[in-house]
Amino acid sequence: KHKFRIVHFLILCACSYQDWHQNGVPCQSEVINSPAPNSGLSAQDNTNTSYSSSTVPMITQTDSRDKWSKKMDFLLSVIGFAVDLGNVWRFPYVCYQNGGGAFLIPYTLMAIFGGVPLFYMELALGQFHRTGAISIWKRICPIFKGIGFAICIINLYVAFYYNTIIAWALYYFYSSFTSTLPWTNCNNLWNTENCTNYFGQSNITWTNYSRSPAEEFYMRNVLEIYMSSGLCSVGGIRWQLLLCLFLIFTIVYFSLWKGVKTSGKVVWVTATLPYVVLFILLIRGATLPGAWRGVVFYLKPNWEKLLETTVWVDAAAQIFFSLGPGFGVLLALSSYNPFTNNCYRDAIVTSLVNCLTSFLSGFVIFTVLGYMAEMRNVEVEDVAKDKGPSLLFITYPEAIANMVGSTFFAIIFFLMMITLGLDSTFGGLEAVITAVMDEYPHHLSKRRELFVLVLVIICFLGALSTLTNGGAYVVKLLEEFGAGCSIIAVVFLEAIAVSWFYGIQRFCNDIKSMLGFAPGIFWKVCWVAISPAFLAYIIISFLLDQPPLVLFDYKYPDWSITVGYIIGASSFIWIPVYMVYKLVWTPGSMKQVRHYLNINNTYYFNKY
Q1: Among 194, 204, 214, 185, CA closest to 377
Q2: Cβ contacts of residue 66 below 8 Å, gap of 6+?
Q3: Residues with Cβ within 8 Å of residue 149, at least 6 apart in sequence
Q4: Angle, to 10 degrees, between the axis of helix 260-270 and the axis of helix 406-439?
Q5: Quick one: which of 244, 198, 189 has its CA closest to 217?
Q6: Cβ 466 vs Cβ 477: under 8 Å
Q7: What is the pLDDT of residues 337-370, one digit of tens each?
Q8: Among 199-208, 370-379, 380-389, 499-508, where is mean pLDDT lowest?
Q9: Counting Cβ atoms within 10 Å, is residue 209 exposed (0-12), middle (13-18) or buried (19+)?
Q10: Type and span of the H or E element at 33
Q11: What is the bridge-based pairing of β-strands 550-551 and 56-59?
Q12: pLDDT tens by residue, 428-448
């Protein structure tokens, strides 16, 4: 009990004393006493140290900060970030693996009580404080500032592997500009004797050794993974993929170099085009023979699955990674909003669009899987065993190759994948750019173009290992450990810091000053208890149930798992390191800190 009091006291010291040391009064340079919009409250003098519980804080707008040209620029940017490749490849697979239509029950509950409240919280924080993921902690609780640094490192790890997946899609996109798609038949240089083309053929037997033309194109031509024995020998860099990645980062640079003024225009194409393509593919898939088999397999409920803990864990993880709180992107994008923008409505609309997109993608994928099962004369379950990138680069291209108008559908499908990936890259790197530039404005405010160039070069160099013959193994390792359990732990601490240390009442008053109304009891309970419990549930489940890491029948050696843990810890470790740093190096004696807390503790924690 005494130890707990000591730790609590030290945290209060760091939170309060740094603000006092820097500003004289906690957040005095940022917070003014102001009436809420349409509230009729009388304004108070800034010099008045007394505070009424009915008064809400307001942050003044700064003309120097960029702003979105239009409201739709912001909405499309958020939707573009949240709706990514995972909506297309992960949700359909997770859904049918966990009970089909029955999975929608835990998925919806996890979205309502976990995902959407966290999504709303980040939008509100970014809009109110108008700063990035690092400097925002000076105004919330300075001892948690390491969260901002951890977020930036995680976003870098994601950029190292995620853009390589987009480069694969670009390679497919280029290869699709032919009258006959190169993964249609087995008459190519990269094909082996196991290549089996069953479309348009009769008396073809599909065995465990059979490989489709699409699988061999992906494995032996795009990746050339057969030239690598694993992580011990990844081989050389594929120059074709290197060129594709260079083109991807070139697009990224010129979309971000001028800030939201340019990225806000680009997303009008990259965020809307995927929906046009999805509807085209849905209509085409629904007309294929056997499509109904895939839809039935996708949605047929297995109610017994709801009794399994793994189903609820998968639902929680899916909604979390789908909406994407914790990456600092929502903080960054909303920080360019007008102060009175209705972020509550934005959170509801964008979350709903994201979830419906995932559900729609399931129909797009499973109508085609049903068609393939019909052509192979096997069960849909035997066709739907692929997940992750294999679903997008093997299974779906294989079906497209045997449709009428295959070239057209291949071009628009991979163009959709490129745009889906680019939107998420824009968001992830903008989070890093905004966080670092807001933390060091005197050095970087006039050098955005140069800073973005340096950041893009770092990401490009960091991705080189993923372009080798064994690059797919590196991608899988970074995907599992670079942004897996570490990002969930970061968001858990973020939710705790905002709800428990910053104060739920203070946070709600911040929202009231922007919107004119305070969040209801549902949101308060979610932020204080349910959402942290939701995140803790995912973390514990991940730690207790860690299946062996396998890719293409390659089992990752123990030393690579250790490397993975180091990668994950390299981002999260900044949180406790920064806590220790502030506790040790914050100037002033403990007596001064105690005296300050006695005077200002009520002001700091109960003012709002």
Answers
A1: 204
A2: 259, 260, 261, 336
A3: 134, 574, 578
A4: 160
A5: 189
A6: no
A7: 999 999 999 999 999 999 999 889 889 988 988 8
A8: 199-208
A9: exposed
A10: strand 31-34
A11: unpaired
A12: 999 999 999 999 988 888 889
Q: In this structure, what token pair is assigned to residue 450? A: 């140069």
Q: Would you say residue 541 has pLDDT above 60?
A: yes
Does the annotation place 322 within a ligand binding site? Answer: yes
Look at the chain and count its residues.
608
What is the helix (H) or strand (E) element at residue 413, kind and residue range? helix 406-439
Task: Output the six-digit token pair for 301.
Answer: 């409920």
The confidence score (pLDDT) of residue 592 equals 52
Confirm or deny that 354 is annotated as ligand binding.
yes
Distance from C-alpha of 355 to C-alpha of 82, rounded to nearest angstrom:
10
Bridge-based pairing of strands 550-551 and 554-555 is antiparallel
Residue 381 tokens read as 């379950």
- Residue 82 among known ligand-binding residues: yes
Residue whose tokens read 């993608």: 361
The pLDDT of residue 201 is above 80: no
pTM: 0.84
Higher-pLDDT residue of 28 and 490 is: 490
The span from the CA of 103 to the CA of 305, in Å, is 8
Is the distance from CB of 367 to CB of 294 less than 8 angstroms?
A: yes
Question: Alpha helices of 441-557 — where are they, by DSSP H?
Answer: 441-444, 448-462, 471-481, 485-496, 504-515, 521-525, 531-544
- The model's confidence at residue 208, banded by pLDDT at 50, 70 and 90, is confident
User: 3-class SS at 237?
Assistant: strand
Closest of 426, 428, 90, 66 to residue 270, by C-alpha: 426
pLDDT single digits (tens) 94-127: 887 788 888 889 999 989 998 999 999 999 999 9
Structure tokens at 154: 């995680």
Spatial distance between the Cα atoms of 169 and 157, rounded to a whole number of angstroms? 20
* Mean predicted lDDT score pLDDT of the chain: 83
Cα four-point dihedral sign 266, 271, 274, 275:
negative
pLDDT of 159 above 90: yes
CA dihedral 118, 119, 123, 128 (to 10 degrees): -10
pLDDT one-digit tens code per residue, 213-246: 888 999 999 999 999 988 998 989 999 999 999 9
- CA dist., res. 473 & res. 476, Å (int): 5
Q: Which residues of 175-194 are buried (b: 16+ CB within 10 A; e: fewer)?
A: bbeeeebbbbebeeebbeee
